[in-house]
Structure to design on (136 residues):
């Protein structure tokens, strides 16, 4: 469990740094196109749907795995499900920020795409890799 926990922290931190890099990249965007307002609305709806999916998938995948790992910390199937639940959560969080990057390169201002980055960062910071609490 210790090595899995360490690996998850490394992965989480790497994705957080990548998200920060995407945010910085937006400041260097050389945008020359006129943005289509419909794209901002569409990406906002998709991002909101992904956040809902994140909550649902996290509840379905991670909560049962954490409950099982709290009593049987060496269960390989529960550990794999715990890892998968975290990775899916982080991938969906990162994709919300990526929508902001795409929109920035489609011509939107940084202030228009900042909510995507803020939402992604908040989700990543809120869902750091938690160790299951042992109930022995």
């Amino acid at each position: 469990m210790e090595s899995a926990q360490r690996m998850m922290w490394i992965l989480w931190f790497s994705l957080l740094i990548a998200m920060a890099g995407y945010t910085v990249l937006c400041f260097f965007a050389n945008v020359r196109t006129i943005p289509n307002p419909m794209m901002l609305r569409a990406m906002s709806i998709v991002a909101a749907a992904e956040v809902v999916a994140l909550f649902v998938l996290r509840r379905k995948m991670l909560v049962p795995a954490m409950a099982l790992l709290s009593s049987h910390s060496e269960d390989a199937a529960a550990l794999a499900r715990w890892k998968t639940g975290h990775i899916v959560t982080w991938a969906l969080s990162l994709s919300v920020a990526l929508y902001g990057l795409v929109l920035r390169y489609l011509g939107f201002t940084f202030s228009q795409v900042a909510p995507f980055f803020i939402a992604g960062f908040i989700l990543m910071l809120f869902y750091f890799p938690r160790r299951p609490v042992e109930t022995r």
Observations:
- The chain has one domain: 2-126.
- Residues 2-126 form one domain.
